[in-house]
Amino acid sequence: MILQNLPQIITAIGGLGTAAFGLLEAVKPVIPGINHLGFSRIKKTVVGLTPNEQAAQQPINALPQANIVESLLANWVNGTDLASQKAIAKSLIKLHLSAGNAAALAGKTNVDPAILQQVAASIISGTSLTQQQSDAYSRFDLIVTAMLDECYQHADQVYRNWTRGLAAVIAVALAFVGGWSLAATDFSAYLHSPQMGQAFLIGLLATPLAPIAKDLSTALATAVNTLQLVKK
To answer: How far is CA 112 from CA 15, 53, 90, 121, 123, in A?
Structure first.
């Protein structure tokens, strides 16, 4: 009997996980720090790749560092496609390149500082790059791409891990309250009852099962029906 009801139980537990994720999405505007999770790694990388200069030496037609960070944060908070976010970040970093900050930027990307300064000066003046300058600029582009890919992937993983953890806390809380309402007893008695342990276990299983609950319950139902046919 328990085996026959197992698909329905798994579906119900997965539904609790889905509800926990939905509730977390609903409280994000109230707790804005949730949307910022993981962005600190991106900010650290981008700040290193957009060194500040004196006002008189600011790159022409480029955003200041603070505006670049704000722009990238807006894309992160709004959940823009990760590939698009990286492409935007790289474009803003390359636009920020100038003869004044090329040396500092070369130190971050392990590119020849003298050549990168020449590249920046040539880009600003509209002069064609020499082969040596073009090779150095290509290496700079590749290294910046790799650095952004690393920081965005790491930030995305941090965000996913934290949101799963927060959703699990919500699921446990919901299961705990639901178990208490079904136990129909006082709180202290509920804390030492088997129902509380069951509620806690269900809450822990809810978020991992949420993405696969439907497929898993279908597979179990098929297995149960197959075993019943074999027994006949």
So the answer is: 56, 20, 19, 14, 17
